[in-house]
Design goal:
heterodimer, A: alpha/beta, 7-stranded mixed sheet, 7 strands, B: mainly alpha, 60% helix, flat
Chain lengths: 254, 97
């Protein structure tokens, strides 16, 4: 059974897609079988895989108009369930489906044994698609900058995940909070980190690894590459590999 | 309140004011008290960021020392340098006078 991890934050620009792409690549480099799921209609994750851009995507899969085999794309080291810009239309369709929160879980259960890790890139909202990801996942990781709006975003995610846990997925756990673009010396960063590390709900949930500001991370996406392909010696490459090692340790894998 | 006067505790409180789950969690421990600037000899009272501490933990066994000793040595070295700079600055000021 795969570890299914939802990478979620309802605030945009917090590094969800970058984290799914590069953490996935790092885990694949550690010889893990990895599937990425693009649940964002912007399709940024999908666009980094040339072969993954297609007519049909995760939206069609969720409403049952195609199968996983119709849309799954794989290269030599990683697989992806791509998104298309039509995904938002399918989200509206899903809203009329009974049991709409379970559609992704149903699909991922069919292929869960084929992978060690399934990473879900969530949209920057807490709508039906994000709830689907939380119902399908064993855990969720919140990438965030150490700033006010991201702190509020984390609070909202915790409120909704509490409900999902209570009503739909009792096994759901907070996998960790990942600080991105962190400048640890500022008072504000220290205040955010202190607020979380002094709260029993979060104190052991902050990843030791944090992702430093790195221009190579911004550039790599434009060249449709992960950070290990684009700049293997960059800070971003080092940070995401450290994160992968920490996650393997946390999830009891080598 | 002037921006430069904000303490970490001020920011912590402001951050919490905008939250519900985090604020209402009664398991929140007391916010960290800000330590005053050290005035005399310091024995492991500095906050070391985790990455640096990790590096010290890796380095210490290679040098056959404890992490505490290594941190203290590094701190002592840094303070001696600062002290030297201070002496030079005082000397320069005296000469100018």
């Amino acid at each position: 059974m795969a570890n299914i991890i939802s990478i979620i934050n309802n605030k945009g620009g917090t590094g969800k897609t970058t984290t799914v792409l590069n953490l996935g690549a790092a885990l694949a480099k550690k010889k893990k079988r990895v599937l990425l799921v693009d649940l964002d209609s912007q399709g940024n994750l999908t666009s980094t895989f040339d072969s993954a851009v297609s007519e049909q995507g995760i939206g069609e899969l969720l409403v049952g108009s195609c199968t996983i085999n119709d849309i799954i794309k794989s290269n030599s080291y990683i697989s992806i369930l791509p998104s298309t810009e039509k995904l938002l239309d399918f989200e509206f369709q899903l809203n009329n489906e009974p049991g709409r929160e379970y559609m992704l879980k149903e699909q991922l259960e069919k292929i869960s044994d084929d992978f060690d890790f399934i990473l879900i890139d969530c949209p920057p909202s807490l709508g039906t698609l994000s709830v689907n990801s939380l119902v399908a996942a064993n855990s969720f990781i919140v990438p965030m900058q150490a700033e006010n709006f991201a702190f509020i975003g984390l609070d909202r995610i915790m409120l909704i995940t509490e409900k999902v846990k209570k009503r739909m997925n009792p096994n759901l756990e907070l996998g960790g909070i990942l600080f991105v673009k962190l400048t640890p010396r500022t008072k504000f960063s220290q205040a955010v980190i202190s607020n979380l590390s002094n709260n029993n709900n979060f104190e052991d949930k902050l990843f030791n690894t944090y992702i430093r500001q790195d221009i190579a991370l911004m550039e790599s996406g434009a060249f449709k590459q992960n950070i290990f392909e684009y700049s293997p010696r960059s800070r971003g490459s080092q940070d995401y590999m450290d994160l992968a090692k920490e996650i393997l340790k946390r999830y009891g894998q080598k | 309140m002037a921006k430069s006067k904000l303490s970490i505790n001020d920011i912590q409180k402001a951050l919490l004011a905008n939250t519900k789950y985090i604020k209402e969690s009664d398991r929140i421990k007391k916010p960290i008290e800000e330590k005053e600037e050290p005035k005399a000899i310091v024995n492991n009272q500095v906050n070391i960021d985790q990455i640096t501490l990790k590096k010290f933990k890796i380095l210490a066994p290679f040098l056959g020392e404890s992490v505490d000793d290594l941190v203290n040595k590094a701190l002592n070295h840094f303070l001696r340098l600062k002290s030297l700079q201070l002496d030079q600055a005082i000397q320069k000021l005296t000469e100018e006078d």
